[in-house]
Amino acid sequence: MTKRKNPLKDLDSFLQQEASSIIEPKKVAPAEKHEVRASTSVSKEEILLYFQKLADEDEQTFKTVLLDVIQKSLEFHGIKRSTDKMLMNTLLYLQNQDNWKEAIAEYWSVK
Fold this sequence. Notes:
Layout: H1 7-21, H2 44-57, H3 59-77, H4 82-95, H5 100-110
């Protein structure tokens, strides 16, 4: 009596044989963070003067820039503590007061 062939079993054994001969690819290193440095050092007082000048010129632009600077700083240094997360949620609320729940949910779904 002849044996019936099982093409799926043959294919499975062939793929296992081929998989054992495949060379494992090199692992990709995580992307390096590039540190951004200003060409000259800027003091805290100079930053505050810049914000004061911006606030005098246009209050709405000042608030937008200030919130953006805080958000980028948090993201740059990493949100590691619960207080960082609370600050980020507060920023998202201030930036999107009309639909703050959606903005917070969208932000954290991406992260």
